[in-house]
Amino acid sequence: MADQITLTLPDGSPREYPAGTTGAEVAASIGRGLAKAALAVEIDGVPVDLDQPIDHDARISVITGASAEGRDLLRHSTSHVMAQAVFDLFPGAKYAIGPSITDGFYYDFELPDGRRFSDTDLERIEARMREIVKQNQPFLREEYAPQAGREVFADQPYKLEIIERASAGDLSEEETGDVGDGSTVSVYRNVDAEGNVLYVDLCRGPHVPSTGKLGAFKLMKVAGAYWRGDEKRPMLQRIYGTAWEDKAALEAHLHQLEEAERRDHRKLGAELDLFSFPDELGGGLALWHPKGAAVRKVLEDFSRERHEANGYELVFSPHIAKSVLWETSGHLGFYAEGMYPPMEMEGLPTTRAR
Amino acid sequence: MNCPFHILIFKSHMRSYRELPLKIFELGTVYRFEKSGVLHGLMRTRGFTQDDSHIFCTREQIVPQLQELVTFVLEILRAFGFTDFEADISTRPVDKSVGSDEDWQLATDALFETIEASGLPYQVAEGEGAFYGPKIDIHLRDAIGRRWQLSTIQVDFQMGNRFGIEYVGADNERHQVIMIHRALFGSIERFFAILVEHYAGAFPVWLAPVQVGVLPVAERHHAYAHRVVDRLRSGGHRVELLPAHSDTLGARVRKAKLEKLPYVLVVGDSDAEEGTVGVNRRGTDDPERGVPLDDFVEQLGADVIEHA
User: Fold this and answer.
1) Mean pLDDT per 10-residue run, chain A (354 residues)?
2) How far is residue B87's CA from residue B151's CA, in Å, rounded to a whole number?
3) Which one, of B122, B190, B196, B199, lies nearest residue B153 by Cα?
4) May I ask the CATH class of domain A69-260?
5) Residue B308 — pLDDT band, cuts 50, 70, 90?
6) Distance of CA A180 to the CA centre of its chain
7) Whole-number mean pLDDT of chain B?
């Protein structure tokens, strides 16, 4: 191992450091503001905890909250804090996966006796999460060989299943966030000031250095979700939340959600009597009421008039045709799953709807 | 998925270069079997109507056609009040593609040139084009800053070959036709949903399902109110009368506001005598009283054609 390593910053400038320097130390060497804002670092494009020693030359950049990578990290760490709060309030709970998603995160749980989370429960969980953030618990990473890793999660069946399937190479995209390729099992613990372990999770990481970095979050709702999306497996309870780099960003997001709900076309469509989706038709098929139809007619007339003025020729064609037509066009090759199934009628060639 | 139909129309007789570019347009209803979990109001349905166009052209016409297309698309979308656009250009995939290097270069350069000339901000999706040609997607931002993909302009070097589409050139030789697929709104249903959300249900006058509500104060004003309605309808406007017996004036005004009518006309004694109307414009609190009906009709007409 070399004594000195060269780390190249995003602007291309190289800096020399002793081998074993951590991302936190690199950030501190650049500036105090950066050190404070640092959540993790990227080493050669791979996100890594701030406390991991770096032992080779690499490109390095510091991840802060106001970036896509930073928010992703905040959300994932917040989901851990949420799970910790759930275990504190609901002893005997089992957990599955808790990834970050667009604008937020979720975690899936199974409560004893088939109990379900209520809105009051969410409030209590959120309150407990704020306490955990106040305690500024560090996230500590440890690597295990798979067998030892299994012992850590001996009483958590969903985590065990993820570890098993990792070694078989059979993981969903969200599950790889937990174990990567499964060659080792990485575990994150949250501890208190005395070093007592308050929470353990199976996670590839990285995480923010401590819970105090979190705080601009809100729990949104609970939904049912089948384990692995499989109706034959248990239905877990998915708590959704949103998390951002600061209060202002969180408020802006919540405001955006409110606005979007206010404008939801399905709600307005019903209020303004524009269209409906009666059950009698089957899913995804709309009836346009006279008021909706009046707008649609203006839209279509405008479109037709503009097209004709621009040299287009209007045509009409049928909604169905011989399947063979789409074989020639190559559509069946790409879109077969999306098309309605072929219709067979006595004495006629196989027909499809377009 | 209306291409095969449009191609058959093109192939219905041997085409000369003089007929190109041939631009075919249809509001074509198609059906897609989407899973229940992904259906979403009018944005994702199982039956929808594409504003589907196919342009059949020569190699030399690709560049001007693409330029015309982008201009046309933006002009139409601007008519709805959208001003914030972005483009994604998808270029030649690395492994498999059909079409000569020159054709790909020509079409891709044309797409870049066109987008740059339009001044739209754009991103390049390297290698994300279809194997049969490069494309542009045009996105817009709605009133609350959400990004929606709208239009797609897709160059196609392959379809001409699959269907054996040719034209007779000036040299009397047969040549392969190049196709450009273009969806502008995407689907009428999805675009309508985007409009509803963009306007929050308050459609501009030219689109509103009911443009004017006419409210006689009392029963004795009905005859005049009917004349106002007839006058407006004869101008091709969409008008509704809310009769006095149906509810109090206050309740009817509230109902019209809830339905987001662009104009609510209240007519009472002085209006019937003087041929005027009391105009309540959506978004304002104070009505304008005693507006001569002729003046209102003129104003309404101007409002409606303003979008063009």
Assistant:
1) 86 94 95 94 95 94 95 97 97 95 96 93 97 96 89 94 83 74 85 92 93 96 93 95 97 96 97 96 95 97 95 95 81 68 90 88
2) 9
3) B122
4) alpha beta
5) very low
6) 16
7) 93
> CA-to-CA distance for B286 and B280, rounded, in angstroms?
7
Residues of chain B with Cβ-Cβ distance to A331 below 8 Å are 1, 3-4
Q: Which residues of B touch A255 (CB under 8 A)?
A: none
A312 touches chain B (CB under 8 A): yes
Summarize pLDDT for B148-202 with one digit per residue, the tens.
999 999 998 888 888 889 999 999 999 999 999 999 999 999 999 999 999 999 9
d(CA A178, CA A165): 11
CA B296, B80, B76, A301 dihedral sign is: negative
* 246-265 of A, contacting B, C-beta below 8 A: 256, 259-260, 262-265
Q: Tell me which residue in A263, A264, A329 faces B162 most closely, judged by beta carbons.
A: A329
Residue type, A184: T
Give B231-269 pLDDT, tens digit per residue: 999 999 999 999 999 999 999 999 999 999 999 999 999
CA distances in angstroms from B62 to B55, B67, B103, B105, listed in the order given: 10, 9, 9, 11
Where do the domains of chain B lie, and which CATH numbers do they carry? 3-199 (3.30.930.10), 212-305 (3.40.50.800)
Question: ipTM for the complex?
Answer: 0.94
Distance CA B19, CA B3 (A): 19
Tokens describing residue B238: 């969409």
Q: Where are the domains of chain A?
A: 4-64, 69-260, 264-312, 320-353
Distance CA A68, CA A74 (A): 10
Classify residue A196 by its DSSP letter.
Answer: -
- B128, with CB counted inside 10 A (0-12, 13-18, 19+), is middle
Catalytic residue numbers of B?
Answer: 3, 32, 50, 52, 54, 135, 181
State the Cα–Cα distance between residues B184 and A82, nearest whole angstrom. 44
Interface check for A223 against chain B (CB to CB < 8 A): the answer is no
CATH code matching the domain that covers A4-64, chosen among 3.90.1150.10, 3.40.50.300, 3.50.50.60, 3.10.20.30: 3.10.20.30
Phi, psi of B133 (to 5 degrees): 165, 160
CA B198/CA B192 separation, integer angstroms: 10
Contact A58, A43 (CB under 8 A): yes
Q: Residue B9 and residue A315: Cβ atoms within 8 Å?
A: yes
Q: In the numeric block, which tokens belong to residue B137?
A: 């997607």
Say how many CA atoms lie within 13 Å of A48 toward its Cβ: 22
Tokens of B286: 């104070």
Q: Rounded CA gap, B126 and A22, in Å?
A: 35
Place of tokens 């729990």: A219
Q: Determine how many CB atoms are found less than 10 A away from the CB of residue B118.
A: 16
| Rounded Cα gap, residues A81 and A85, in angstroms | 6
| Cβ neighbours around A41 below 10 Å, total | 24
